[in-house]
Design a protein that fits this description.
Blueprint: H1 9-17, H2 23-35, E1 43-46, H3 48-63, E2 74-78, H4 105-112, E3 116-121, H5 160-167, E4 173-178, H6 184-190, E5 193-196, E6 216-221, H7 224-234, E7 264-268, H8 278-293, E8 297-301, H9 309-324, H10 342-353, H11 356-369, H12 374-395, E9 401-405, H13 421-425, H14 432-437, E10 441-448, E11 454-461, H15 466-480
C-alpha cells in the first residue's frame, strides 16, 4: 500500500498545498489501492479515468493559486448519490443501468471545491439494511478480521462500501447517508469516524430516497478533523430541497479547539440496555472518564421514550419507503419486465427488481398506511416520535451533548443475521432515536473488542450545533488514541 493512501484527508490537503505531492500522484495511489482490493467489493462502479482527469485539473488550479477547499482529494461516493454521466443504481436491480443526467447537490458541492471522484461505493439496496448484505452487487466485506478467525465480517450498513473504503485506505473520505444509523453504525464496525448532521443541514436533492423525513447525508472519514472539513463542503441551503434549512454554514474545522472545559455531557440511563456486553459498558465508562478528565461535567439524564424508538422507526421508515419506491414501476427509467398489460408489467418489474429486504419494508409500509391501520400504527408512531424529540429537548436544557455507545456489539459475520430481521434491526437501537429527532450524531472509534474488532462511542448534539458536537468529538478522539489498523489480508486473495 502506498504511503500516500495512509494520509488523512487533512494531511493530504497540506501536502498538496505545499506542492510536496501532486493530485495525480495522490489519485493514482488510490486507484492502485482500489484495484488491489477487489475482494472487499467496496466499489461497484470505479471511475478511474474520470478521477485522473479531475486530478489533473486540480493540479492546474493549485499551480494557478485557485485551489478549492478539497482540491485534489480523492473521495468515494455512495451509490445512492446521483452522479452525472456515471451509473447510479442504489445497488438495486430495479434501477438497472440508470445513468443520471444531473448531479446531486452534495456531490456538486464537493466537485465545486475540487474533490476527485474515485467511483461509486457499495450499499444495502435502497439503503435498507444494517450489514451491506442486501446489495445487488453482493456484500461488501469489512477489512477487519476477528482474532484467530478468517471469517468475513460485515462492514455495517447501509453505508458499508463507504466505511470499508475509508478503513481500508481506498479513499481519503466518503459520502454516506444515515436514515437510522447508516453512517454511525458502519463507522463503529470499521474503526472510522461517521458524522450524521442535523436533518436539513445537507441537501437531499439528487439522493435516492428511502425515508424522506429521516434521510440525511454525511461523511465517513478517518479523523474528526476530516469529517469537519468534508461537512463544511457538503452543507448549504438548496432551493431544490424543501427540507434544506437556510442557515449559514460555519467553518466546522475551526470548531476543533480542543477545549471542552465547563461543557456538560449527558449520560442517558435508558441506553444501558439489558444484555449489553461488559466491554461496551467499560468503553462507555472510559469515555465518561476521558471527557471528565478534559474538564467536562458529567450529568445523568433520562430519555424515557427511548424504548419505543425502534418500533416507531420501523413503522415510519417503511411507510415512507412504500411511498417513495412506488415510482419504480418500469415506465420511465430503470428495469422493465414486459407483460400482457400494464398491471402485469408493474408486477413483474417490481418482483424482479426489488430484493427481499426492500419487499419486506414495502409490505410493512403499505400495511401501516392502509385504511383501518393508518391511525392505529402510523399516526401513533408519529406521536411517539414527537415524544422522543421532546425527551431530547428536555435533556438539552441540562447538557450540551450526550454520550452513548454507537452499537451494542462489534461487527458480526456475513450471513450470521441476514435471516433474522429482528436481530438485524436491533443493531440500530442506539442510533435510531437521533434520526427520529432530527439531531446530529457522530461515532468515534474508541477501542477494540476482546476479538480485536473496533468499537465506537456516539456523541449526540443539539439541532444545528455540529460545532459543539465536533469540538467534543475531537477531544474524545484524542483521549481514546485509537490508531489500530486492519491487516491487508485482501491483497493475498
Amino acid at each position: 500500500m502506498s504511503d500516500l493512501t495512509k494520509l488523512t484527508l487533512s494531511d493530504a490537503r497540506a501536502k498538496l498545498m505545499s506542492k510536496e505531492i501532486s493530485a495525480v500522484e495522490l489519485t493514482q495511489a488510490h486507484v492502485e489501492a482500489v484495484e488491489a482490493a477487489v475482494p472487499l467489493n467496496a466499489y461497484v462502479t470505479p471511475t478511474f479515468e474520470k478521477a485522473l482527469d479531475m486530478a489533473k485539473a486540480s493540479d492546474e488550479r493549485i499551480a494557478k493559486g485557485e485551489a478549492g477547499s478539497l482540491e485534489g482529494l480523492p473521495l468515494g461516493i455512495k451509490d445512492l448519490f446521483c452522479t452525472e454521466g456515471v451509473r447510479t443504481t442504489a445497488c438495486s436491480n430495479i434501477l438497472d443501468e440508470f445513468t443520471p443526467t444531473y448531479e446531486s447537490t452534495v456531490t456538486s458541492n464537493l466537485w465545486r471545491d475540487g474533490a476527485v471522484m474515485l467511483g461509486k461505493l457499495n450499499n444495502d439496496e435502497f439503503a435498507m439494511g444494517s450489514s451491506n448484505e442486501t446489495s445487488r452487487f453482493g456484500p461488501c466485506i469489512n477489512p477487519w478480521k476477528a482474532s484467530g478467525s478468517d471469517a468475513d465480517l460485515v462492514p455495517g450498513g447501509s453505508s458499508g462500501g463507504s466505511s470499508t473504503a475509508v478503513a481500508a485506505h481506498l479513499a481519503l473520505g466518503a459520502t454516506a447517508t444515515d436514515t437510522g444509523g447508516s453512517i454511525r453504525q458502519p463507522a463503529s464496525f470499521t474503526g472510522t469516524v461517521g458524522l450524521k448532521p442535523t436533518y436539513g443541514r445537507c441537501s437531499r436533492w439528487g439522493i435516492t430516497a428511502f425515508a424522506s423525513s429521516l434521510d440525511q447525508a454525511g461523511p465517513i472519514t478517518r479523523s474528526v478533523r476530516d469529517a469537519a472539513i468534508m461537512l463544511t463542503s457538503m452543507s448549504g441551503h438548496d432551493a431544490k430541497d424543501t427540507t434544506s434549512v437556510d442557515i449559514a454554514v460555519p467553518d466546522f474545522e475551526a470548531a476543533l479547539t480542543g477545549d471542552i472545559r465547563g461543557l456538560k455531557v449527558g449520560i442517558p440511563k435508558e441506553y444501558r440496555i439489558e444484555g449489553m456486553s461488559t466491554e461496551i459498558e467499560k468503553l462507555w465508562s472510559d469515555g465518561i472518564d476521558w471527557l471528565k478528565s478534559a474538564g467536562a461535567e458529567i450529568v445523568n439524564v433520562s430519555l424515557p421514550h427511548t424504548k419505543y424508538a425502534l418500533p416507531a422507526y420501523y413503522i415510519v421508515a417503511p411507510a415512507e419507503a412504500s411511498s417513495n419506491l412506488a415510482r419504480y414501476d418500469g415506465v420511465r427509467y430503470g428495469l422493465r419486465v414486459t407483460g400482457d398489460n400494464i398491471t402485469e408489467m408493474y408486477e413483474k418489474t417490481r418482483a424482479a427488481g426489488f430484493g427481499d429486504e426492500v419487499r419486506r419494508r414495502i409490505l410493512i409500509g403499505t400495511y401501516v398506511l392502509s385504511a383501518g391501520y393508518y391511525d392505529a400504527y402510523y399516526i401513533k408512531a408519529q406521536k411517539v416520535r414527537t415524544l422522543i424529540a421532546q425527551d431530547f429537548a428536555e435533556a438539552y436544557k441540562q447538557v450540551d451533548v450526550l454520550l452513548t455507545p454507537t452499537t451494542p456489539t462489534a461487527a458480526f459475520a456475513i450471513g450470521e443475521k441476514i435471516d433474522d430481521p429482528l436481530s438485524m434491526y436491533l443493531n440500530d437501537v442506539f442510533t435510531v432515536p437521533v434520526n427520529l429527532a432530527g439531531l446530529p450524531g457522530i461515532s468515534i472509534p474508541a477501542g477494540l473488542s476482546s476479538e480485536g474488532l473496533p468499537l465506537g462511542l456516539q456523541l449526540i448534539g443539539r439541532t444545528f450545533d455540529e460545532e459543539t458536537l465536533l469540538r467534543v468529538a475531537g477531544v474524545l478522539e484524542e483521549a481514546a488514541g485509537f490508531n489500530a489498523e486492519p491487516s491487508t489480508w485482501w491483497r493475498n486473495k
